[in-house]
């Protein structure tokens, strides 16, 4: 459908490239279509399935494309946390792609504190989905573009999130897993790049995959890599 229908309608280049952060990725992995023991068993880790494996008879390749974009309207909008699809992308959703077997929009509406929920989304979602993410219970408003009732009243879907009353300027809650990075020193002798990874969960540990984007002006030497956890040197897997 290209940019004519579906979620890709929102991918307006000038809006994406002027955001605070954007990242495009293509993920390819082999998936076993049939085996002697397990049907539809995906190949895990770095082990590639092939037809020579005793347990795998045929292999398919799964292609997954992702786009991650971060907009910062809290700073540019006089401290307001309200947002909408039109405000972010200058476009709204008008129709689903006929070739798509699934096309959904998820909005995180999880309450951030014990008080009554202070935010509301419009129009009303087609369903609500709950999941456990990093030990926390999350609630998502789901907009199914394949639902006939979604475009009944209007041929345009502009998902909006508004706060029921003005919010103070307090900082947003810190996520369970978050990271900070900074560059120190200068030159090849004292220059360094440091990444701090925090886990604020009271008792649970999480596996972490770290992907670094190195600035063009830095030359890194892998043999100088040091990893310290709670004051002690740590060896990654």
Question: Can you describe this structure?
Answer:
One of its GO terms (biological process) is attachment of GPI anchor to protein. It comes from Platysteira castanea. InterPro entries: PIG-T (IPR007245). This protein has 237 residues and is mainly β. Among the domains are: 78-168, no CATH class; 177-234, no CATH class. The protein is built from 4 helices and 12 strands, in the order αββαβαββββββαβββ. The strands form 5 sheets. The chain has a 3-stranded antiparallel sheet.
Mean pLDDT: 80
Shape field: globular
Q: What's the alpha carbon Rg, rounded to whole Å?
A: 22 Å
Fraction in helix: under 10%
One letter per element, helices H and strands E, the order comes to HEEHEHEEEEEEHEEE
Low-confidence blocks of residues: 37-52
Summing up helix and strand content along with how strands pair, one would put the structural category as: mainly beta
- Strand arrangement within the widest β-sheet reads 3-8-5
In terms of DSSP E residues, the strand content is 25-35%
The end-to-end span amounts to 42 Å
Number of helices: 4
Major β-sheet annotation = 3 strands, antiparallel
Number of strands: 12
GO biological process, one term: attachment of GPI anchor to protein
Organism: Platysteira castanea
Protein name: PIGT transamidase
Short structural description:
The chain has helices at 13-16, 73-76, 85-89, 187-190; strands at residues 21-34, 58-70, 83-84, 104-108, 119-122, 127-133, 136-144, 160-163, 177-184, 192-199, 228-229, 232-233. The chain has 237 residues and is mostly beta strands.
């Amino acid at each position: 459908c290209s940019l004519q229908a579906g979620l890709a309608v929102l991918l307006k280049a000038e809006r994406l490239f002027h955001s605070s952060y954007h990242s495009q990725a293509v993920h390819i992995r082999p998936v076993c279509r049939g085996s002697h023991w397990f049907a539809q068993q995906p190949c895990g880790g770095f082990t590639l399935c092939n037809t020579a494996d005793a347990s795998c008879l045929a292999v398919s390749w799964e292609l997954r494309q992702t786009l991650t974009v971060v907009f910062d309207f809290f700073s540019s909008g006089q401290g307001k946390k309200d947002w909408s699809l039109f405000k972010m992308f200058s476009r709204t959703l008008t129709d689903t792609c006929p070739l798509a077997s699934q096309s959904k929009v998820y909005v995180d509406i999880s309450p951030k504190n014990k008080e009554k929920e202070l935010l509301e989304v419009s129009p009303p979602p087609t369903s609500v989905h709950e999941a456990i993410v990093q030990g926390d219970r999350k609630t998502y408003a789901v907009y199914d573009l394949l639902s006939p009732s979604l475009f009944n009243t209007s041929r345009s879907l502009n998902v909006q999130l508004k706060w029921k009353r003005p919010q103070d300027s307090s900082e947003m809650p810190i996520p369970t897993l978050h990271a900070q990075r900074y560059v120190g020193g200068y030159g090849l002798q004292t220059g360094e790049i440091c990444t701090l990874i925090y886990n604020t969960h009271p008792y649970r540990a999480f596996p972490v995959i770290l992907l670094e984007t190195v600035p063009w002006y830095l030359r890194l030497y892998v043999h100088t890599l040091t990893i310290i956890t709670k004051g002690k040197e740590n060896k990654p897997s």
